[in-house]
Design goal:
alpha+beta, 7 strands, 44% helix, single chain, five-stranded mixed sheet, 9 helices, two-stranded antiparallel ribbon
């Protein structure tokens, strides 16, 4: 398992760099734009402004450099982003030891910007699975509710992983960019994930997708002495998803029992 750490400039301090380097952890941290970095990226910003004035389209240019702050024992890779758009100009920088930073500086920065995607997992638990419904005045009651919400999230993640279709490469999904998904720039990255979700709505779906396609479904329940029959409509548009998940669950089988 390979660990990657991403954080804004508040976490980007020499101690964090040194710990990650010592442990062999890939990191990308935000780096505040100081006068030296601004001087080094002045031409890049001018180029972005010039291209924006010529095309009328927002511009994002990237500069990979070796940079050493006064408090650093040695130079480290830094990627500077310069933007020009209708709202003005903007410059940001990150310090990293990510492989490929020199060849694909834009992918390095965009991967850093994707750190917000991790926060979506917290949002999925809190909002979509309503884990914030902790209104009881008793601690144990709220604790048990949160336990159930966390269990539901883990169950959904397990089902999502089991039901996911084999992952396609960007080229297999119709993109012309031959790079792996991790190295795509922002526009191609968005196209890749959108096409992957369109192809596999369950494997990439959030709780609301599973709820509307598999849980909130009208059915007829017929009980007898020997069995319970669940009758679904033959014209249900997501019947294929239900059958696929059912087969996956059956193939998982019971958990292995400990020996002895």
């Amino acid at each position: 398992m390979h660990i990657q750490v991403r954080g804004d400039s508040g976490f980007g301090i020499p101690l964090m760099y040194e710990v990650c380097e010592e442990l062999g952890i890939t990191f990308t941290f935000g780096l505040g734009m100081n006068p030296r970095l601004k001087r080094m990226s002045e031409l890049l910003l001018e180029q972005a402004v010039q291209q924006y004035e010529q095309t009328g389209e927002p511009q994002r240019l990237f500069l990979p450099i070796e940079y050493q702050a006064d408090s650093w024992p040695a130079p480290r890779p830094v990627v500077i982003k310069a933007e020009a758009h209708a709202q003005g100009t903007n410059r940001r920088a990150v310090v990293t030891n990510r492989p490929g930073w020199l060849v694909e500086p834009q992918a390095t920065y965009d991967d850093y910007a994707q750190r917000g995607e991790s926060e979506n997992r917290n949002k999925e638990l809190k909002v979509e699975l309503q884990a914030d419904r902790l209104s009881d005045h008793r601690f144990l009651a709220n604790f048990f509710r949160l336990y159930l919400h966390a269990t539901a999230l883990n169950l959904m993640i397990r089902l999502r992983q089991a039901a996911a279709l084999p992952v396609k490469t960007p080229v297999q999904l119709g993109l012309l960019n031959p790079l792996p998904a991790e190295a795509l720039d922002e526009p191609d990255r968005k196209r890749f994930f959108k096409r992957r979700r369109d192809r596999d709505p369950l494997g990439g779906g959030l709780a609301c997708t599973w709820r509307t396609r598999l849980i909130k479904v009208a059915a007829e329940i017929i009980t007898s002495a020997r069995r319970i029959v669940v009758r679904l409509s033959g014209t249900w548009p997501h019947l294929d998803h239900f059958l696929h998940v059912s087969r996956v669950v059956l193939s998982l089988g019971p958990a292995p029992q400990p020996s002895g």
